């Protein structure tokens, strides 16, 4: 019996965490942390023709299923087969994002005293395209969004920002208030209370403590043996803890970076800021992982800081 998740246009942490993946004759049986369960038929996986083609199924991280060491099934793909409300809620979230963006563009344009025709001309787009964007009927390409932000005199990050509880967005919101902080383990998304208790029992009570102990292969092996948590999952947490060393990343943006394929300081150091920001915007428009986007200057600082920091984690 398939359990249906609550029908609201948000995705809780438990709705993104896969806790089980098993193979049967029909396909891959999957279960999420919120109890939502379903089967991915083999026909939906192009590389798989049937049970005979499946040699290994792993959950190396809670956010994707790995088949035969090479086929990756991300959580949002899996969710489609477990939750009948997922597609509808995704569409609602995407539409809300388009409408919110359109409202901000319209408001800023009017504040500058520009007509739609004049603004479209300055941004080098057609008036019809500008109208559709303002009405929430069209998602602009990054280059179009960049041109519009430039003509409005704001950053792309500010243009995509959704104010929280009516507060005014300011750049300082991107920074942590203290340099020498103690970060709770719960700040790492996939560490639930049960897993946190296992870590606490062996003396790991903070993100900083996890990084210190788990930076080496030996340390991770010891943690795995003491807690009965897999090496792969501990490495996933340690990589996330490593990203927390970058000022301004923290819990919120580390999830977004992970979704964009950046899960280590070393990986971040190798990225081009402008390309990374474009990818982050693309991912967030699809998945709505954060309610505000970082400025270009913030992403540039992340990359610069990653290049300056010593690489602590052994892989």
From TrEMBL:
Keywords: DNA-binding. One of its GO terms (cellular component) is cytosol. It comes from the Bacteria. SUPFAM superfamilies: lambda repressor-like DNA-binding domains (SSF47413). GO terms for molecular function: DNA binding; DNA-binding transcription factor activity. It holds the Pfam family DUF4332. The keyword Phosphoprotein does not apply. The keyword DNA-binding applies. InterPro entries: Cro/C1-type_HTH (IPR001387), DUF4332 (IPR025567), Lambda_DNA-bd_dom_sf (IPR010982), TransReg_Diox_bact_type (IPR050807). PROSITE patterns: HTH_CROC1 (PS50943). This is Uncharacterized protein. It comes from Dehalogenimonas etheniformans.
């Amino acid at each position: 019996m398939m359990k249906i998740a609550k029908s609201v246009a948000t995705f809780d942490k438990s709705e993104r965490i896969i806790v089980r993946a098993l193979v049967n004759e029909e396909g891959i049986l999957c279960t999420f942390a919120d109890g939502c369960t379903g089967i991915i038929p083999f026909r939906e996986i192009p590389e798989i023709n049937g049970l005979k083609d499946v040699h290994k199924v792993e959950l190396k991280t809670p956010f994707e299923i790995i088949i035969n060491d090479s086929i990756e099934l991300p959580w949002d793909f899996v969710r489609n087969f477990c939750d009948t409300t997922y597609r509808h809620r995704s569409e609602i979230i995407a539409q809300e994002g388009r409408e919110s963006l359109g409202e901000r563009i319209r408001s800023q344009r009017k504040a500058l005293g520009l007509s739609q025709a004049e603004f479209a001309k300055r941004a080098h787009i057609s008036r019809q395209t500008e109208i559709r964007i303002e009405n929430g009927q069209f998602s602009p390409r990054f280059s179009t969004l960049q041109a519009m932000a430039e003509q409005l005199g704001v950053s792309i990050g500010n243009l995509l920002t959704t104010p929280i509880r009516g507060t005014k967005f300011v750049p300082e919101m991107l920074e942590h208030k203290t340099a020498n902080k103690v970060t709770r383990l719960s700040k790492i998304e996939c560490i639930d209370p049960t897993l946190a208790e296992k870590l606490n029992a062996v003396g790991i009570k903070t993100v900083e403590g996890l990084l210190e102990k788990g930076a080496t292969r030996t340390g991770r092996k010891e943690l795995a043996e003491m807690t009965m948590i897999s090496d792969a999952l501990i490495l996933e947490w340690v990589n996330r803890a490593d990203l927390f060393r970058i000022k301004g990343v923290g819990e919120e943006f580390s999830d977004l970076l992970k979704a964009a394929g950046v899960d280590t300081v070393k990986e971040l150091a190798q990225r081009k800021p402008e390309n990374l920001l474009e990818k982050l915007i693309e991912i967030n428009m699809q998945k709505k992982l954060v309610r505000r986007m970082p400025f270009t200057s913030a992403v540039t600082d992340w990359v610069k800081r990653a290049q300056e920091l010593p690489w602590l984690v052994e892989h």
